UniProtKB/TrEMBL annotation:
Residues 270-328 form the DnaB/C C-terminal domain. This is DnaD domain protein. Residues 360-373 have a biased composition (Basic and acidic residues). Residues 1-225 form the Replicative helicase loading/DNA remodeling protein DnaB N-terminal winged helix domain.
Length: 389
């Protein structure tokens, strides 16, 4: 956008010049620049009769171009106007601010306002609850025939995110937010950006939750994963590793590896490492591969913090989001390390996989030993979840 570019208004798009709701509800969120730009557009609306220069707005509002463009972005994001472009010309469609009742019924808008002016101030803006009265308003279908095309809805949201239903599901499944206000806004953005219903978002939130905590960044990682991943290039042992990594939680996966090293207890530091990796937006399947790779390299019965965090930084830099990508990274690193030493005849993946990934491996654990092991795992996970609450 340049100051010499032209803009015009959409015809027959006159909206109310009453700025009450704009100042009371929107100003704390959108800021003074966006408010001034909106007031200018309302005041100079000419029903689309003439073309104007962007410079006219800059001159009158005393804003420079970057601040003006930022204000336009905010106004479109809050649905106060729509901006269209035809080559270098722009077309502006004005929209009225929502009423307090509609605005505050939107969970995201309400929390944005609360984050700026506080819960008490927002509560003062609410309409009082009507008690002891009966709603006798007519429904649309009760007023118009089947051929009627008029929509009398005064306001319509771009996206309706049913937060109450979302939170009811959370309570039923024992999930919770880490930072509710920020998380709700992030979930709404995900819903709008990917055109998902609240239930779609919830399913992803449940799938990517870590220790019963919803982490929106992990949802984004899941949504941005490659859609198709070919498994033809993987050996049978690698396929077993991939299957285990995708079907096990990091706690269970770690317990299986420690069991192979005669270590049956997860340490507090190991539990903290897994939490930190989840907070870094890694999905469980990638965390599991990092855990496996770290144990292979450090030759210890306990997870080495320094090594796995170094590996995590490397994975984050290379944007590794799937177990398949992580296994390929393991394979490539193993190949590079072998070329530095003396030539050896080894299987290309033998040094990077645990014994239980061998297709011919037989688990000789007795039923009694397995039952004891499962009970220890159950107690360990229960303790970890209790400590995290």
């Amino acid at each position: 956008m340049k100051p010499i570019d032209n803009f015009s208004f959409v015809k027959n798009n006159q909206v109310s010049k009453d700025m009450t709701n704009l100042i009371r509800l929107y100003l704390p969120i959108i800021g003074s620049d966006a408010t001034v730009v909106y007031q200018y557009l309302i005041s100079f609306y000419d029903d689309g009769k003439s073309s104007h220069k962007i410079a006219e707005i800059l001159n009158h509002t005393l804003l420079d171009l970057p601040h003006f463009e930022a204000a336009l972005a905010i106004l479109t994001g809050m649905d106060l106007l729509a901006l269209y472009q035809d080559m270098s010309d722009y077309l502006i469609e004005l929209k009225e601010p929502l009423t307090p009742k509609v605005f505050l019924s939107n969970a995201v808008y309400r929390r944005l306002l609360e984050s700026h002016i506080g819960d008490v101030a927002v509560a003062d803006l609410e309409m009082p609850e009507l008690k002891g009265v009966r709603d006798i308003s007519k429904k649309f279908s009760e007023v118009f025939s089947d051929k009627g095309e008029i929509d009398l809805q005064p306001s319509r949201m771009k996206n309706s995110f049913d937060l109450d239903s979302f939170k009811n599901r959370m309570a039923a499944d024992g999930l919770h937010f880490d930072q509710e206000k920020q998380d709700v806004i992030a979930l709404y953005n995900i819903s709008e950006k990917f055109s998902l219903t609240w239930f779609d978002v919830y399913q992803l939130a449940k799938e990517t939750a870590s220790r019963h905590t919803i982490l929106p960044k992990r949802i984004l990682t899941k949504l941005n994963q490659p859609k198709k991943v070919s498994k033809e290039a993987f050996s049978q042992s690698e396929k077993i590793i991939l299957s285990e990594a995708k079907s096990s939680s990091p706690e269970i996966f770690l317990a299986k590896i420690k069991r192979g090293r005669q270590a049956m207890v997860m340490t507090a530091d190991e539990a903290k490492i897994l939490d930190e990796l989840a907070q870094m937006s890694f999905l469980d399947e990638v965390i599991n591969i990092m855990v496996l790779y770290t144990f292979n390299k450090t030759k210890s019965a306990n997870l080495n913090r320094r090594y796995i965090m170094k590996l995590a930084n490397d994975f984050a830099f290379q944007k590794i989001t799937t177990a398949e990508q992580a296994v390929e990274k393991m394979r490539d690193s193993g190949s590079q390390s072998q070329t530095k030493g003396k030539p050896q005849r080894v299987n290309k993946t033998a040094s990077s996989i645990p014994e239980w990934s061998n297709p011919d491996y037989k688990d000789e654990t007795t039923p009694e030993e397995q039952a004891k092991l499962d009970e220890m795992k159950r107690q360990m996970l229960a303790k970890l979840r209790k400590d995290g609450e």
